Amino acid sequence: MRNIFPRWVNTVPIKLIIALGMTGGAVIAGITYYATPKYTRVGYQPTQPVSYNHEFHAGQLGLDCRYCHTSVDKSPHASIPSANVCMSCHKNVKADSPLLEPIRQSYYGEDSNKDGKLSEDEDLNGDGIMNVGAPVPWVRLHKTPDYVYFNHAIHVNRGVSCVECHGRIDQMVEVHHDKSLSMSFCLECHRKPEDALRPMEKVTDLAWVAKHTLGGDDIQTEDDLDRIHADAIGLAIKNKWNVNAGVSCTTCHR
Prior knowledge:
mainly alpha
């Protein structure tokens, strides 16, 4: 057989193994680098059942985030607004807009007259109580894995603004995933929390930037924070509230 095949053929298996190994390594490296939240989550923008314009409501009208996300400073979850929150305004504003039909269906339920009273045909239970429709099927945009514990109230009540995790919501017509919310993203903030802290009254002011003014550093009230140099505001808040952002595994994985 040595007269048929040249000597270099003996190295083919080794070369093939090396080539496959290099190809596999390149694929693994590519997946490791690109298949991360930075590339797979950022930019995600699902279609919602109702086109809610955050740029108009939160930006132009100046609605506080907590008007719709009522429990963001009270519980681990930010809460999704129910139909009655929307209808508190839209009973009078654009009350007949076809774009708000899912909201009206959820709010009025089987009350076809939209007067809060059911007719005899609609009063299936015979109790005269309006049967509220199904919740508006909002599509969830931000979600941490089930094995990650994140508490909104803890962060909001210590001066971490919504903008740190969600970006400039007040400039988005349709909200998209602006930050990766990966483990490295969280750890970067936990290692130096002073960079993300601001006065409590500015937590939902997404356009707020620290004032570059010099002054005393004896903090007695929240108003005193405005007198401190911008570079020191976060550190002052950290010291005032004794913020100790953990970086161990048990901080988020419980």
